[in-house]
């Protein structure tokens, strides 16, 4: 029965709530992948309407599923420069495993939208990637980080996704300003 498949999927992805990221929250604890994805989805939701050319439903869905692959592999910090091909291979296998919990059409939608995000060439994928990087930088600047935290990383992280349009350029300028303030403390 399809209802059981949807329930099994939702139960399986619950594991994202326990996957810790390398970002620290204001409270001093590490955030989870689920918390990051929630805040990214909220960020996308409040800004995407400014871009009528975007498929709003797709960018919202993409923001919610972009890190589902971490369910099994965990978060690999970009600061540590993981092998991109290996990271993609592992996350693709995880996405395909999760998709099998769903009815085939819903599972294929997750695979397709995740692949689109990973390729990062459509206007929707570029937008979500930019806000994904922005949310991470915001968390870095907002969180209670260890004393050896590398704020300089923020200044180069995901730059290519902020090249188009006044909003993304302005967002990046403000994030860089906040990062520089952290560096000067």
Provide structural commentary.
By secondary structure, this protein is mainly α. Helix content is 60%, strand content 4%. It contains eight helices and two strands, in the order H-E-E-H-H-H-H-H-H-H. The protein has helices spanning 2-13, 33-47, 56-65, 70-73, 84-99, 104-119, 123-142, 166-183, and strands at 20-24, 30-32. It has a two-stranded antiparallel sheet with strand order 1-2. The longest helix has 20 residues, at 123-142.
Query: What is the helix/strand order?
Result: HEEHHHHHHH
Order of strands, main sheet, comes to 1-2
The percent range for helix content is 55-70%
Number of helices: 8
Low-confidence stretches: none
Largest beta-sheet details: 2 strands, antiparallel
Strand content: under 5%
Principal-axes shape call = globular
> Taking Cα atoms only, what radius of gyration do you get, to the nearest Å?
17 Å
Roughly what is the average pLDDT, rounded to an integer?
A: 93
Give the N-terminus to C-terminus distance in angstroms: 58 Å
Given the helix and strand composition, which structural class is it? mainly alpha
Number of strands: 2
List the helices and strands and how they pair.
Elements: H1 2-13, E1 20-24, E2 30-32, H2 33-47, H3 56-65, H4 70-73, H5 84-99, H6 104-119, H7 123-142, H8 166-183
Antiparallel strand pairs: 1-2
């Amino acid at each position: 029965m399809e209802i059981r498949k949807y329930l099994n999927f939702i139960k399986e992805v619950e594991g994202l709530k326990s996957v810790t990221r390398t970002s620290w929250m204001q409270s001093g604890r590490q955030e989870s992948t689920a918390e990051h994805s929630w805040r990214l989805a909220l960020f996308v939701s409040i800004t995407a309407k400014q871009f009528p050319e975007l498929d709003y439903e797709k960018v919202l869905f993409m923001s919610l599923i972009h890190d589902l692959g971490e369910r099994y592999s965990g978060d690999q910090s970009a600061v540590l420069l993981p092998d991109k091909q290996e990271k993609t291979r592992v996350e693709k296998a995880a996405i395909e495993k999760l998709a099998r919990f769903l009815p085939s059409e819903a599972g294929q939608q997750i695979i397709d939208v995740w692949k689109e995000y990973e390729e990062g060439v459509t206007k929707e994928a570029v937008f979500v990637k930019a806000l994904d990087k922005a949310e991470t930088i915001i968390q870095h600047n907002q969180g209670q980080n260890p004393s050896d935290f590398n704020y300089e990383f923020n200044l180069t992280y995901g730059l290519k996704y902020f090249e188009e349009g006044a909003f993304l350029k302005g967002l990046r300028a403000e994030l860089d300003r906040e990062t520089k303030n952290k560096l000067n403390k």
